[in-house]
Amino acid sequence: MEGLVGLLNGRWEGLWWTDSSIMALEVNVHPIVLMNISDHFTRVKAQNLGAAQRVIGALLGTQEGRQVSILNSCELTYTQTAAGIDLDFDFTDKRLELFAQVFPTFDFLGW
């Protein structure tokens, strides 16, 4: 098993599993996604005076067959309730509309 590949020949090649006998799905993650997640978590933690809090975001990109490319992300707002998480769908819809204007080929891949 070869594992995760990140840096090949001095260039970023995304993250994917290289042993095709285990997984037939290829997932590429752009570095901006990792930076967005880290930035969002750090900002929320700083706003809460160092107390860690869950952050939620949307993953955006493309999918062609079994190849998924996660190319961007954005933070989502929510409220913690006794029953779980109440996602702000108005905010989410607005963010996804704005991203669709700038990146019309990107789809919402998950959160």
- How would you describe the shape? globular
The CATH topology label is Cytidine Deaminase, domain 2
> Are there runs of 5+ residues with pLDDT below 50, and where?
1-12
Overall CATH architecture = 3-Layer(aba) Sandwich
By secondary-structure content and strand pairing, the structural class works out as: alpha+beta
Average pLDDT works out at 82
CATH homologous superfamily title: Cytidine Deaminase, domain 2
Alpha carbon gap, first and last residue: 28 Å
Descriptive labels:
four-stranded mixed β-sheet; 2 helices
Could you characterize the architecture of this molecule?
28% of the residues lie in helices and 42% in strands. With 111 residues, the protein is α+β, with helices and mostly antiparallel strands. Strand 6 (78-81) and strand 7 form a beta hairpin. The longest helix is centred in the middle third of the chain and has 17 residues, at 31-47. The chain is globular, with a radius of gyration of 16 Å.
How would the blueprint of this fold be written?
Elements: E1 4-8, E2 11-17, E3 26-29, H1 31-47, E4 56-64, E5 67-76, E6 78-81, E7 84-87, H2 89-102, E8 107-110
Parallel strand pairs: 3-5
Antiparallel strand pairs: 1-2, 4-5, 4-8, 6-7
Summarize the structure.
By secondary structure, the protein is α+β, with helices and mostly antiparallel strands. It has helices at 31-47, 89-102; strands at residues 4-8, 11-17, 26-29, 56-64, 67-76, 78-81, 84-87, 107-110.
